[in-house]
């Protein structure tokens, strides 16, 4: 069984926000909700200061605290390592939002149009048909699960074939994001992890994330 | 851009206190004080306190119901009792709503005569005229009492344990929190019992030593909680600073420490005050400690910065 993961090379990231926008477009993410974010942090002290961009998304943890606290079982971890929310079961208690150390879950209170009183644009209308997010539930990144599943059905390899790869990885012009099967020693992510000193965010949370960062 | 300065510095949790989330905070507060009050009322046989606290817990359940938007969602919460403290809490709440009602109804029918309320008086007379009910009611009270005691203890502890599971928020992830919330709930109960004792002109001798002990234990626990949080991480330290400075500092200083702990201790030690005023001060003291502490706690809780 595959175990999907991502490696992000911070040395390459130019904080262009293309991944943020691509994710929004590909998943028709509602207004005010972000599955992908760029965090900018200044490191060092004047005059030796540098700005580091951290692209962040759901870490699809192996020990996800959000799964443990969910009172309805709406949040669960699939065999391939992806943590998903079944919005038909979610009751919107936001216990999972509080439990996520990476703050990668967003409660959708109201699915408002992007341009207020002007109503829904054509892409928004299309989006609501293709991805009907339920108000009063929690949303999160799922590594573009639909693309992965559709690609696998066609015999494609996620992380290699663009059609089966998450939108944020496809759009990255500097190839700072790499996606693939962590259980396959020959996958591009496994090779990167073996070649570099990769780390995860907040290891002290003991969540065993599947999104790794490289910065040297 | 939305993400730029997000999660780099300490970020306050807003989910369970701001906007619609205030319903969750309110439900948590009502559950804690309701359970503490019901326990104290049961222990000192103060039926009025038990009745009020039962209503508070029922109101908390209604708060959960409103927040969930649909009743079916509340039922769904019972599906993960083995795993989630929220599910366990909801199950305990529902069981208590049933068992507490049975105990209260039986006790009220046995002890309250409803003189002056003709309709209620007549119904009571009809019920207790039946020999079956005369035998059943005391048995029901005796059966429900231990069950309600366990359920109330569960209600008193589950809020703290539910918060305690949140490793992302250091101030919540503190082993002393369940104990403190339980103590604050009991403080409300003791304040309410003292209030009714004084209104009925009963002496406080029965409750005095237990009340002193609870006040001392709560003060020590709060002190230990603050010290523990100060040294358990930067996010917890920041939360404690938020709780003890500015407006929240004044709220906690006056509401939790002075009104909640010092005033009841002084009232227990010294007399020489009109009975009604003493009763009122006990009541206000009992309610102010849990309200101010829980409000400032939820308002000051911050996430650990991500990078």
Number of helices of chain B: 11
Count of DSSP strands of chain B = 2
How many E strands of chain A? 9
Average residue pLDDT of chain A: 94
> Roughly what percent helix of chain A?
10-25%
Poorly predicted parts of chain A: none
Q: What structural class should be given to the helix and strand makeup of chain B?
A: mainly alpha
How do the strands of the widest beta sheet of chain B line up side by side?
1-2
Mean pLDDT of chain B: 91
> How much strand of chain B?
under 5%
Oligomer: heterodimer
List the helices and strands and how they pair.
The complex is a heterodimer of chains A (216) and B (307).
Chain A: E1 4-9, H1 18-27, E2 37-45, E3 48-56, H2 65-69, E4 75-77, E5 83-85, H3 95-99, E6 105-108, H4 122-130, E7 137-140, H5 145-153, H6 167-171, E8 177-181, H7 188-195, E9 211-214
Chain B: E1 11-12, H1 22-43, H2 47-68, H3 71-76, H4 85-111, H5 118-129, H6 131-164, H7 177-199, H8 205-230, H9 234-244, H10 246-269, H11 275-300, E2 302-303
Antiparallel strand pairs in B: 1-2
Describe this structure in words.
The complex is a heterodimer of chains A (216) and B (307). Chain A has 216 residues and is an alpha+beta fold. Chain A has helices at 18-27, 65-69, 95-99, 122-130, 145-153, 167-171, 188-195, and strands at residues 4-9, 37-45, 48-56, 75-77, 83-85, 105-108, 137-140, 177-181, 211-214. In chain A, a hairpin with a 5-residue loop joins strand 4 and strand 5 (83-85). Chain A is globular, with a radius of gyration of 17 Å. Chain A starts with a strand and ends with a strand. With 307 residues, chain B is an all-alpha fold. Chain B contains eleven helices and two strands, in the order E-H-H-H-H-H-H-H-H-H-H-H-E. Chain B has a two-stranded antiparallel sheet with strand order 1-2. In chain B, helix 4 (85-111) packs antiparallel against helix 6 (131-164) and helix 9 packs across helix 10. Chain B starts with 10 loop residues before the first strand and ends with a strand. The interface between A and B is large, with 38 and 40 residues.
């Amino acid at each position: 069984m595959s175990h999907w993961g991502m490696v992000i090379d911070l040395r390459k990231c130019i904080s262009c926000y293309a991944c943020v926008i691509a994710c929004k477009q590909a998943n028709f993410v509602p207004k005010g909700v972000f599955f992908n974010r760029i965090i900018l942090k200044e490191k060092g002290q004047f005059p030796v200061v540098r700005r580091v961009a951290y692209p962040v998304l759901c870490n699809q943890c192996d020990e996800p605290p959000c799964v443990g606290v969910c009172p309805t079982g709406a949040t669960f971890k699939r065999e391939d390592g992806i943590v998903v929310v079944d919005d038909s079961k979610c009751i919107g208690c936001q216990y999972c939002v509080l439990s996520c150390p990476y703050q990668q879950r967003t409660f959708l209170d109201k699915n408002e149009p992007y341009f207020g009183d002007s109503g829904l644009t054509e892409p928004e209308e299309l989006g609501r048909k293709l991805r009907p997010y339920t108000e009063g539930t929690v949303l999160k990144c799922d590594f573009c699960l639909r693309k992965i599943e559709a690609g696998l059905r066609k015999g494609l390899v996620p992380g290699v074939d663009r059609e089966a790869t998450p939108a944020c990885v496809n759009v990255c012009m500097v190839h700072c994001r790499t996606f693939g099967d962590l259980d396959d020693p020959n996958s591009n992510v496994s090779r990167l992890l073996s070649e570099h000193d990769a780390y995860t965010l907040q290891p002290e949370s003991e969540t065993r994330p599947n999104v790794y960062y490289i910065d040297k | 851009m939305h993400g730029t300065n997000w999660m780099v510095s300490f970020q306050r949790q807003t989910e369970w206190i701001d906007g619609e989330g205030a319903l969750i905070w309110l439900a948590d507060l009502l559950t804690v004080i309701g359970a503490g009050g019901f326990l104290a009322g049961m222990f000192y046989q103060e039926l009025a306190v038990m009745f009020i606290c039962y209503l508070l817990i029922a109101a908390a359940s209604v708060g959960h119901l409103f927040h969930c938007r649909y009743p079916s969602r509340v039922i769904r919460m019972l599906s993960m009792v083995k795993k989630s403290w929220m599910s366990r809490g909801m199950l305990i709440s529902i069981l208590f709503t049933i068992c507490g009602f049975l105990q209260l109804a039986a006790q009220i029918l046995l002890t309250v005569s409803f003189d002056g309320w003709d309709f209620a008086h007549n119904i009571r007379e009809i019920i207790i005229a039946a020999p079956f009910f005369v035998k059943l009611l005391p048995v029901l009270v005796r059966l429900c009492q231990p069950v309600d005691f366990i359920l109330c203890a569960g209600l008193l502890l589950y809020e703290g344990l539910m918060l305690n599971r949140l490793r992302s928020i250091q101030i919540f992830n503190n082993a002393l929190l369940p104990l403190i919330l339980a103590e604050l709930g009991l403080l409300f109960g003791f304040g309410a019992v003292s209030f009714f004792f004084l209104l009925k002109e009963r002496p406080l001798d029965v409750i005095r030593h237990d009340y002193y002990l609870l006040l001392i234990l709560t003060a020590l626990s709060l002190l230990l909680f603050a010290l523990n949080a100060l040294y358990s991480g930067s996010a917890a330290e920041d939360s404690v600073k938020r709780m003890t400075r500015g407006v929240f500092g004044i709220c906690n200083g006056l509401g939790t420490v002075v009104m909640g702990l010092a005033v009841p201790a002084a009232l227990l030690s010294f007399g020489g005050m009109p009975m009604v005023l003493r009763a009122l001060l006990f009541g206000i003291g009992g309610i102010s400690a849990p309200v101010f502490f829980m409000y400032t706690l939820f308002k000051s809780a911050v996430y650990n910065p991500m990078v």
